[in-house]
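Our collaborator T.R. sent over the components below with a one-line note: 'Predict the complex.' Nothing else. No constraints on interfaces, no templates requested, no preferences about which chain binds where. So this is a plain run: every listed entity goes in together, and whatever single assembly comes back becomes the starting point for the next discussion.
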Amino acid sequence: MGRYAIRRMLGAIPTLIVISLVIFTILELAPGDPTGTLPLTVPPEVRENIRETLGLNDPFFLSWLKWMRQMFISEPLNAIESVTGLQIGDGERLRIISWASRGPAVDTIVERLPQTLWVLGLGFIFGIIIAIPVGVVSAYKQYSIFDNAGTVISMIGYSVPVFFTGPLAIIVFSVWLGWFPSFYDTTHTVSDWSSLVFQMKQLAMPVAVLSLFNAAALSRFTRSSMLDNLNEDYVRTARSKGLTENRVVMRHVLRNSLIPVTTLIALQVPGIFAGAIVTEQIFRINGLGQLLISAINGADYPMVQTLTFIFAVLIVLFNLVADLIYGILDPRIRYE
Amino acid sequence: MADTHERAEEITQETLGDGGIAEVGEHRSLWGDVWRQFRRHKGAMAGLVVVTIIVLGAFVGPIFYPHDPFDIDVPNANQGPTLEHLMGTDTIGRDIMARVLVGGRISLAVGFTAALLGIFIGTGVGILAGFFRRLDALLMRLTDLFLALPVLPLLLVIILLFRDSLRERFGPELGIFLLVVFIIGITSWMQTARIVRGEVLAIKRQEFVLAAQSIGTRRRNIIMRHIFPNVLSPVMVSAALGVGIAIITESFLSFIGLGFPSDFPTWGRLLFDAVPFLEIAPMRVIWPGALISLTVISVNFIGDGLRDALDPRLRSG
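Returned assembly:
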């Protein structure tokens, strides 16, 4: 198991290198020019100087290597320094600088991360909390009204895109009913009871929209996993030795059914960040998704590269986590 | 009810057929069986009807609808639904119904073409990887790599970067269309490839393939005549689901403001343009959003029905 984990981790490195090359090549092929947005009064020599300092005249491979060094050596070291307070080396490192804010890209990302984590994390957790009980009941009472309604609702849930349910929720709950604010105020700080209530109110709609979307697919998956297990021999054995129905379902069947469900949950984690792009746009939350969109629109290539690469790392990481969880939870899986 | 009746009649005919082994009821073809089974799936049939209506509405509807989607009529701007303008008008008085109908053309065209491209690549890669052992490792590596790519951010980046040069070369509408279809297709084939590869690996070991090989059938013919027809059912299911995903992705791109320009209405673009006016004209958001959702739900139900109908193990009749 340990050996397998190490091998998989080593195997992830070439994948990440290739992905970073892909991202880099796409941006390199792009016809855009970051000096194109400068005023026309800037003389050509100055323009050329700016290009030189931004490293735009470097050959492709060199600029890729530079970026790799910043991404894999400078930024992690810097993160360690700022967390532990230790000084490693002379502390003079070339960091990835955003063209838009002229500051380190990673600092901006760290600044935006909490908003994204709050909204999307809660949406994800509530999605799981809704999906698993619904899936269990649907499977146990297969073809009942509850199950059939669940099938239709979850089909609707994952067919209707978030960029429609979001505006719809705003129309109903903030325009017509006036219950919740229509956009998310990130400057709001929780200091007393009434500000906490406001915080919960402004979280309610984005979290609800996201959790419905997350719950839809997961509840169906839980259902089919439960159904697979309910017909197993060990369930009959458990019943025949006189265990209560509750114990059979909640202990024996549920535990075994949750193995693939856990894997799916791990695989969905990177998807949360992709969901951030739309949700943050609708509810005007200034998190990572919003940062990506504004970086793309402003041709802030270093920021786009960094963010996209972080997404890629998350995907590769959680694929690995999903595989390892499966091996830990299911003793029948043996890795050679 | 009618179905049970029909079936009962069939059985009576089969069992009571007046003597002779030849009389075994009407001829039943494979696709006839699939269709018979598909018709039993209520959701799938409803989906088929809805999709047909939406497709007809988008492609034929604008011919009969009296308003032009590009006619600006400022005095009549921001109207709610009236008899004259069934879905109302937008901020510069264009008829929303006309725009929604025409918008459906692009959304549906992108959805179907992109899904077709994705399926084509996916099936090709899957068959090659499953059939030729030498290509397997390489192609599956490639599939894994594509699965690890952060698709949505990359889609946005690619569109932004290449939009202008393609627009110059192919004209504004066709340029974006080709770009959107291409990138949706190229980022959505991986699941199909995996499924198809698995099926091919299983089929390849069966006796009929061995028999075909032993009488000297060319490999190309084995693939086209024996392997491909047998992987057709998972391919069709993925195709149906792929249409839904492609429509959502196109709307997503337009919704972020990176899809088609606003002079070419698509459902996603109409939604995007309507969101700022959400508080004064909520219905403008609902029309295109409901159509996207309805199409995707219907397509997914069709996929569900196809899966049941194409899998003989699930067949009840």
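Summary for T.R.: Residues 111 and 286 of chain B are 20 Å apart (CA to CA).
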